[in-house]
Design brief:
The complex is a heterodimer. Chain A is α/β, with parallel strands linked by helices. Chain A contains ten helices and ten strands. In chain A, the strands form two sheets. A six-stranded mixed β-sheet of chain A has the order 6-7-8-3-9-10, sandwiched between helices. In chain A, strands 2-1-4-5 form a four-stranded antiparallel β-sheet, with helices on one face. In chain A, a hairpin with a 2-residue loop joins strand 9 and strand 10. The two termini of chain A are about 30 Å apart. Chain B has eleven helices and no strands. The longest helix of chain B is centred in the first third of the chain and has 31 residues. Chain B is mainly alpha-helical. The chains are: A alpha/beta, B mainly alpha. Chains A and B meet through helix 2 and helix 3 of A and helix 6 and helix 7 of B.
């Protein structure tokens, strides 16, 4: 299996405050990997550092190429789609415009049009609302839109920051089902950050546990889910 | 009744210019959250360039197009050189930057072309429009050019990829970067377009107010008023605000006893303040809710 994303000794800073203290992990091509941890452990910061949205040092390699010192908009062009916490919806624009923006770096117009139809097939509710302002969608619909927008890039890697946040349990089940399908059928590698550890471990194949800016545990998702000690001390269920 | 129609049409004509200035102000405000106090001076300088080109023998529309291109490039250059480095600076630093730009452009124009008033030609002529006494051909031309410009901008922002990218960059910059938009260049592009729009306003109003370095002072105040009235977050509102301010200014000058030409400006501004007391975000502005 080839390594798609390799993060080595990552340290990140907000002003003078250090948020990541030498974090290392890797993600295999085609895998669905999850980063778990409590509030403030550094999960979001890790994703932000990959996209150079926070000051960091250390090595980040994507498909063998270093990402350090590239601007966020350039990193996107490698095929890395980041769905930020809070979904990053363009709330004043229509659903369809949001999808078009996801593909703004692509030049193949016919492919973009067919991909929009494909997203409507994945998420029928978006088709019903395609002319509606995105800000008027419900939280769950906006999360669907954010995932669809990210897929419009035809990404090789999708970074998802707490997709379950603020959603009803049933909606979360739905969404995670779709993520699994995208991972299997469209061969999109996924790195998902979650507080809902139980659900994320069911979905993922690989898992890492972060505590105060360091990786404290890693391994096969099933093994971690089955290890009662880890569950109790780090994952709280 | 004829006087009324006449005043409304004349108001629409000058309102078209206020609409252009307001639009230029709003475009930059949406991109960088600052009011460009130098917008009027930039428009004045562009107008002088077109005048100079015509002095050198370039025909009107040739000079018009060349001036638009030069203004577009100059707008981008001003953003890259002066305001990009100030992007993370406090508000007052930016205000100082705008005032400096105002003074530099104003004095340079005075130095190069001196402060005497110059005639500026109109390509439309100043005879009555279609034989009617209501409006002159130049006024009709002002309205026509502005309407074409607004339609063009509407199609650009609604139906082109780069227009979509510019709107995205202005509304949620962080998300725009995450879909791969170079937001920094979108801001520069916004400056270029705003400067070109200002140049159109300057060239259209110059035959009316005559060409001199302080010609845009009053116009920019009306433009600001229009932008605030319509809502600084809404390009559509800015345009509507421009036309409303133009019409109201004329009607107040004609019908309110004792107002006349001298008091037109304060009356128009008083109207705007009254609107803002009721609707602080302007007629079409969005209430910005910030999480604290």
């Amino acid at each position: 299996m080839t390594v798609l994303l390799n993060v080595k000794d990552l340290r990140a800073y907000y002003g003078q405050v250090q948020a990541l203290h030498g974090l290392s992990f890797s993600l295999n091509e085609g895998s669905l990997t999850t980063l778990l941890g409590a509030n403030g452990a550094g999960k979001t910061t890790t994703l932000r550092a990959i996209c150079n949205m926070v000051r960091s040092t250390g090595g980040i390699e994507f498909d063998g190429k270093p990402l350090n010192n590239r601007s966020t908009e350039n990193i996107v062009r490698f095929g890395i789609a980041h769905v930020p916490q809070g979904r990053g919806t363009f709330t004043t624009m229509t659903v369809e415009e949001n999808l078009q923006l996801g593909a703004i770096t692509r030049k193949d117009n016919a492919g973009i049009i067919s991909d929009i139809e494909r997203m409507y097939a994945h998420f029928p509710v978006l088709k019903q609302r395609h002319t509606q302002q995105a800000g008027t969608l419900s939280g769950g619909e906006q999360q669907m839109l954010a995932v669809a927008r990210a897929l419009m890039l035809r990404p090789r890697l999708m970074l998802l920051d707490e997709p379950s946040f603020g959603l009803a349990p049933l909606v979360v089940r739905d969404l995670f089902g779709i993520l699994g399908k995208i991972n299997r059928e469209d061969k999109v590698s996924i790195l998902v950050v979650e507080q809902n550890a139980q659900l994320a471990l069911e979905l993922a194949d690989q898992a890492y546990v972060i505590e105060t800016g360091r990786i404290v545990m890693s391994g096969n998702a099933k093994d971690i889910a089955n290890n009662e000690e880890i569950r109790k001390s780090y994952l709280g269920y | 009744m004829e006087l009324f129609t006449n005043q409304v049409l004349a108001g629409i004509a000058t309102g078209a210019i206020y609409a252009c200035m307001a639009l230029a102000v709003v475009m930059i405000y949406q991109a960088i959250d600052h009011l460009n106090f130098a917008q009027g001076e930039m428009a004045m300088f562009s107008t002088f360039i077109s005048w100079q080109l015509m002095q050198w023998g370039v025909p009107y529309w040739g000079a018009f197009v060349i001036t638009l291109a030069l203004s577009f490039v100059a707008g981008i250059a001003i953003e890259r050189i002066l305001f990009k480095p100030l992007a993370k600076a406090p508000v007052l630093t930016n205000v100082a930057g705008f005032i400096a730009l105002f003074a530099i452009i104003n004095s340079s124009a005075g130095l190069i072309w001196d402060f005497t008033i110059k005639q500026y030609p109109t390509p439309f002529g100043s005879s009555p429009f279609l034989g009617s006494q209501l409006i002159s051909t130049h006024q009709a031309g002002m309205i026509g050019v502005t309407v074409l410009l607004l339609l063009g901008l509407y199609f650009f922002f609604q139906y082109t990829r780069i227009g979509l990218a510019m709107r995205a960059a202005a509304s949620v910059p962080e998300s725009a970067r995450l879909v791969g938009i170079n937001t920094s260049w979108m801001i520069a592009l916004g400056w270029g377009m705003a400067t070109a729009i200002g140049a159109i306003a300057g060239m259209l109003i110059a035959p009316v107010v005559f060409l001199e370095p302080n010609m845009m002072g009053g116009v920019l105040i009306y433009g600001f008023a229009a932008a605030v009235l319509g809502g600084l977050t809404s390009p559509f509102g800015a345009v509507v605000g421009g036309f409303l301010v133009g019409i109201f200014e004329n009607l107040a000058g004609t019908y309110i006893p004792g107002v006349g030409n001298e008091l037109k400006l304060p009356i128009a501004l008083a109207l705007i303040i009254s609107v803002l007391v009721v609707k602080p975000a302007g007629l079409f502005g969005r209430q910005i809710v910030k999480r604290v």
